[in-house]
Q: What sequence folds into this?
């Protein structure tokens, strides 16, 4: 069933060096599609919501996985397999987060049956009433494995093109043992000789589709390994490719917390400092840049006069930046911060991840009390409340400015600690607060 009116949105060791986008597509020279089984109920996770629809940074887990596949331009179609009662939910997720190249298919009672339904979307006899054009290679990837990059997708795809089947593996952490019917140790497997089978996996489409067509009901209902089906029914021994530690599957509640923590760490990697050209703000900006660089991979600075649109901001980064620090002088009000928020609102930047803006305001505490300056800047609460509606998190930070370089460095160091914590945590609970260092 295709939801909605149209289709929403070698020897493998000598693999080609990592290629991206169009270059990879040309190098591959084949059509590639993906099937993401997402029709499970997440019993081991517990709770009422199936884990693929649990939020990570206020966005469903499945949207993070779909996004990972959308970044890969040479994957033409993404078939997402969900239960009938989650079709509307999935359509709304696709709509809200602007996912493209996605076709929805109804799931089955087991993972294998869901994957089989996903593959049927490409079958020439149109068993689902419609047909996407058949790919030469199809990638199968659990929708609850959000950390999948182009490198591993390219490797399993090129291997499947050459060998017919391929899958990601990881070293075992625990030793595998077999038990006797009365619950005692029967034997253990030599851990060094065994691996954990992960995802993504990739197959020549005709091989895996034929395997599913021949599959016994027992295998469809109790099997857990697509590579096994290719071997058992099509005599294809899959090529195994060591993947990164991030290929794990979200299964238990703890996995959701780990996923959110990893994504927050990844978002921390780029920060943009925006200052006007006044002496005090430029001085604080340089100090902040110097100190922040010890904790963040990429720190760039831009003059607020150049901050006419986010393209000026984003042009400095190879990837998108989701963290901004506006430095405002000792006489500032909120116009500068409001302007940055307006620029950020004018883009789709905050659709996928919360964007953080720390609004730093200088104070000369010899001349003015903190309480008066906080009172002066009380407008941050309303500004932050409005910005939150667009997934922009605005925090205030009052920083004591002094001509004494040593004292100023100490203050900016403390301020950097607060700013890093705010960016890393992205807590909606602190928006609109004026913190003080
Ligand atoms: N009938 C099913 C069962 C599972 N899956 C999908 O297969 C992937 C891996 O399965 P698993 O981690 O076992 O998910 P659940 O079956 O939901 O988890 P549980 O076994 O804890 O219920 C998940 O993306 C899940 O949604 C599916 O598409 N159809
Ligand atoms: O059994 P589950 O549905 O939890 O996991 C399904 C697959 O992810 C799992 O079997 C991997 O080892 C890859 O085949």
A:
């Amino acid at each position: 069933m295709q939801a909605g009116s149209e289709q929403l949105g070698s020897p493998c060791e000598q693999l080609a060096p990592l290629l991206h986008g169009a270059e990879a597509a040309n190098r591959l020279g084949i059509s590639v599609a993906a099937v993401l089984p997402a029709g499970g109920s997440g019993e081991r996770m517990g709770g009422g919501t199936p884990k693929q629809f649990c939020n990570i940074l206020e966005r469903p887990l499945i949207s993070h996985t779909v996004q990972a596949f959308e970044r890969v331009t040479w994957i033409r179609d993404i078939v997402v397999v969900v239960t009938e009662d989650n079709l509307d939910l999935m359509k709304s997720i696709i709509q809200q987060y602007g996912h493209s190249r996605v076709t929805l298919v109804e799931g089955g009672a087991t993972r294998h049956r869901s994957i089989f339904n996903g593959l049927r979307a490409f079958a020439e006899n149109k068993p689902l009433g419609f047909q996407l054009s058949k790919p030469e290679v199809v990638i199968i990837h659990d929708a609850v494995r959000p950390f999948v990059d182009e490198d591993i997708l390219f490797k399993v795809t090129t291997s499947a093109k050459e060998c017919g089947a391929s899958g990601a593996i990881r070293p075992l952490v625990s030793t595998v043992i077999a038990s006797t019917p009365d619950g005692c140790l029967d034997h253990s497997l030599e851990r060094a000789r065994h691996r954990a089978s992960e995802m993504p996996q990739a197959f020549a489409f005709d091989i895996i589709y034929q395997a599913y067509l021949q599959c016994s009901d027992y295998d469809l209902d109790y099997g857990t390994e697509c590579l096994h089906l290719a071997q058992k029914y099509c005599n294809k021994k899959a090529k195994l490719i060591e993947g990164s530690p991030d290929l794990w599957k979200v299964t238990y509640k703890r996995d959701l917390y780990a996923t959110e923590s990893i994504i927050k760490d990844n978002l921390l990697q780029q920060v943009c400092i925006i200052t006007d050209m006044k002496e005090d703000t430029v001085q604080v900006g340089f100090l902040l840049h110097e100190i922040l660089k010890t904790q963040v991979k990429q720190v760039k600075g831009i003059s607020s006069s150049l901050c006419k649109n986010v393209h000026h901001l984003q042009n400095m980064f190879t990837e998108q930046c989701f963290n901004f620090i506006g430095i405002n002088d000792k006489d500032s009000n909120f116009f500068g911060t409001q302007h940055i928020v307006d620029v950020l609102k004018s883009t789709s930047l905050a659709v996928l991840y919360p964007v953080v803006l720390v609004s730093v305001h200088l104070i000369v505490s010899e001349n003015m009390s903190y309480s008066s300056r906080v009172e002066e800047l009380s407008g941050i609460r309303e500004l932050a409340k409005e910005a939150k509606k667009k997934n922009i998190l605005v925090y205030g930070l009052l920083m004591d400015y002094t001509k004494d370089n040593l004292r100023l460095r100490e203050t900016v160091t403390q301020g950097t600690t607060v700013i890093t914590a705010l960016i890393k945590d992205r807590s909606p609970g602190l928006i609109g607060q004026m913190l003080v260092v």
